[in-house]
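4.2 Preliminary Data

To establish feasibility before requesting continued support, the project team ran the inverse folding procedure on a target of 509 residues. The structure was first converted into the token representation described in Section 3, and no sequence information of any kind was made available to the design step. The complete token record follows.
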């Protein structure tokens, strides 16, 4: 009886072992079997004409493909680790600098793809928090779905670009509808987006197609991009497909990081005296008007320097700047037809720093009051004309003559080109020198600086380039496009009004 029970127990154990071996074999076969793929050729049957030799050849081919694929993945992983290590060190450096007093911090973004791997320099919690933030930025942006927009003015338009040109909608009278990107940061940004798209298209795992073709920059057709200031930049790039009617479209998003405090400082402007330099030849009536405003806003004292030579704006400003003693002198280069407020003078003090920043404000240029108000008798006093609207003037974004900078920076940069005679050119020359220096150029519209309208005369003594600039400035100073259109089509408008008046009189009768 005991022997029979023992035999039954042994039989059960053996049966369990057999079942366990079968399960393990099945799991092993499922794990080691190659995955099916539309591009793969079906395995031959055991009794097919190829037989064992064909099966072994196919296995060898797949093994070679997997070996190449694994080698490519290892190479990409190695590159990602290097990039992540570099970014981690940069992040530590920035954080350390901010904690020890703060340094200048440029605006920028972080690509989502570059944050997917591991990084020994960043904790798991930090990586998780960062990825959650990037995902939230992506979900807030108009990438996969639109958002309700209150008016047509709230739409953020896209700009388009090709390999050669950028087509833009930025406002401003000097903006061209198309241009080659001359700013290095804009060039590098678009090139980076294009290179990222090509890397994605040519990656080994792209669509699992082993026999794919390699994409090049010549396959790029066009891209569009736009930046939402609180979210990031969206890029959509289109490439040629395998057939004439097929295209490849890639979408990338560069999320902006959270706001970081860089500096918190107290600025005392009580001892920052501004020295206004105004070059002048003739134009006594305008000078009288300027001095009236000067006495009201900023009058302390003045110095008159007379030059008995042909008028040159650049020479006059250069002589005035060098006449002051001491380098720590704040200068405001101004013209006699400029109206400024005390608020602007504060902006001048705050936006210029010796050895660090120069201030190039964009002033508001007044249209011809005779055209704006319809009749010379209806023109109000100057103080009532200083209204910033599209029908009263425009932002003079092509002018660089009004600027605040310290004398030391002006001297170190080389000052004006005093060989330029007459009107225009010297201000652009100085502005470009600052752009090529290490100083920050602050360029922004300001409401307290206005250019009063005056009739502009372009004399024959100007060079061809100066005369062209003068005439362009003259054409822009008269009135808005709409107002000029009303003048051009005045006869048609009057004829329409007469017809309407005639119809009204017929109805009454």
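Position-by-position output of the design step:
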């Amino acid at each position: 009886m005991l022997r029979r029970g023992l035999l039954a127990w042994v039989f059960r154990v053996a049966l369990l072992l057999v079942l366990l071996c079968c399960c393990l074999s099945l799991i092993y076969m499922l794990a080691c079997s190659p995955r099916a793929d539309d591009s793969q050729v079906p395995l031959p049957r055991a009794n097919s004409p190829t037989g064992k030799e064909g099966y072994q050849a196919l296995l060898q081919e797949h093994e070679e493909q997997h070996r190449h694929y694994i080698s490519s993945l290892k190479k990409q992983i190695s590159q990602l680790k290097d990039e992540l290590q570099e970014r981690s060190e940069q992040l530590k450096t920035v954080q350390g600098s901010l904690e020890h007093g703060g340094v200048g911090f440029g605006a920028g973004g972080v690509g989502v793809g570059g944050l997917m791997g591991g990084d020994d320099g960043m904790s798991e919690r930090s990586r998780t928090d960062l990825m959650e933030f990037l995902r939230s930025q992506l979900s807030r942006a108009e990438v996969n779905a639109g958002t309700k927009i209150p008016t047509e003015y709230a739409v953020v338009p896209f700009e388009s670009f090709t390999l050669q040109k950028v087509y833009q909608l930025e406002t401003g009278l000097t903006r061209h509808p198309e241009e080659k990107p001359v700013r290095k940061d804009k060039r590098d940004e678009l090139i980076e987006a294009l290179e990222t798209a090509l890397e994605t298209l040519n990656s080994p795992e792209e669509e699992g197609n082993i026999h794919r073709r390699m994409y090049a920059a010549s396959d790029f057709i066009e891209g569009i991009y736009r930046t939402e200031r609180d979210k990031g930049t969206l890029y959509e790039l289109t490439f040629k497909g395998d057939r004439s009617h097929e295209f490849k479209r890639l979408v990338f998003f560069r999320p902006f990081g959270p706001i970081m405090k860089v500096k918190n400082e107290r600025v005392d402007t009580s001892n920052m005296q501004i020295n206004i330099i105004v070059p002048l030849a003739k134009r006594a009536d305008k000078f009288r008007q300027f001095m009236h405003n000067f006495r009201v806003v900023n009058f302390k004292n003045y110095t008159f320097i007379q030059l008995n030579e042909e008028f040159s704006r650049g020479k006059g400003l250069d002589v005035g700047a060098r006449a002051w003693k001491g380098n720590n002198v704040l200068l405001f280069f101004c013209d006699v037809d400029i109206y400024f407020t005390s608020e602007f003078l504060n902006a001048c003090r705050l936006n210029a720093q010796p050895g660090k920043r120069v201030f190039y404000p964009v002033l508001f240029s007044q249209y011809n009051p005779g055209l704006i108000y319809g009749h010379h008798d209806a023109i109000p006093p100057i103080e009532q004309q200083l209204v910033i609207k599209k029908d009263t003037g425009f932002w003079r974004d092509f002018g660089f003559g009004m600027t605040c900078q310290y004398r030391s920076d002006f001297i170190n940069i080389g000052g004006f080109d005093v060989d330029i005679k007459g009107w225009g050119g010297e201000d652009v020359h100085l502005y470009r020198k600052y752009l090529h220096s290490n100083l920050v150029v602050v360029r922004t519209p300001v409401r307290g600086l206005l250019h009063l309208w005056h009739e502009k005369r372009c004399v024959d003594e100007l060079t061809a380039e100066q005369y062209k600039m003068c005439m362009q400035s003259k054409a822009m100073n008269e009135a808005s496009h709409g107002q000029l259109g009303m003048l051009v089509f005045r006869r048609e408008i009057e004829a329409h009004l007469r017809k309407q008046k005639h119809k009204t009189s017929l109805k009454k009768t």
